[in-house]
Amino acid sequence: MANETTTTTLSELLPEIVYEAMFIANEKSIMRGLVKNYNVPLGAGKNVNVPIYPRQTAAAVAEGTDLVNAAVDTTSAILTVSEVGLMTTVTDLARKTAASNVIADVGRLFGEAIARKMDQDLMALFDSLSVTVGDGTGALTAADVFNAVAKLRSQGLSPDGISCVLHPEIAYDLKANMTNTFADPNAGDVQNEAMRTGFVGMLAGIPVYESGNMLDTGSAGDYKGGVIHTDSLGLAVLTDINIEVERDASLRADELVGTATYGVGELNDAYGVAMHMQSSINP
Known about the structure:
Layout: H1 7-11, H2 14-28, E1 36-39, E2 47-52, E3 75-80, E4 82-91, H3 92-97, H4 102-123, E5 132-133, H5 142-153, E6 162-166, H6 168-178, H7 189-197, E7 201-203, E8 206-210, E9 222-229, E10 233-248, E11 253-266, E12 272-278
Helix pairs in contact: 2-4
């Protein structure tokens, strides 16, 4: 029958929906690119065991003296994958009358939702880090960021691979501290960049990222951000985004179900510092 909307016709558009969803998910997710990523092969089980090797120490040795054998005892971090998902219904009438591209809209909806959930799951791990700068009562300053970076550098880590992730309301205080409460001090490139673009960019040798996906600790304006090395947290992905369609003939609509299967976890506690701050603009 002409103009009939069926599962078959919508299924032909699935690759376009999946592409849009994956593109948006990758673009919107900040945390994914800042942590260690693992791809889980199908049939490999739900748990990913990541071996953690301890730091070894070299010692001076006299000529003709045997070296002492050092045992390398590894520990392991376990990342357990599970599903997250959402569902939306696209009616035949909506598809036929919408001024916008419904398929692109659905892909964007799914991609943003998956990216937000993935970021929130990874950011929630900041709370499990043993070392913390701040106690949730003060505003963030540039000195706090330098403090956190110094703690990681003392572990022998290079600034390469270290990044700072903050909620925008916490980042506001950092910018205010750096720019003399937004009175342009003309003191240097970092301050001027913050004034011009609203972004901190690089500070203490590391990039500073802002994300509204970060949830508060339960109190308004109270957030735990993080200064982390790539090896501090892990993300194991079994499937990025899977989309299925089910036709509801009586509703004259198609149900689209989107899922992703992944797991997150802490790999090396010493490679991350939590930043527990209170926003001055949301007390």
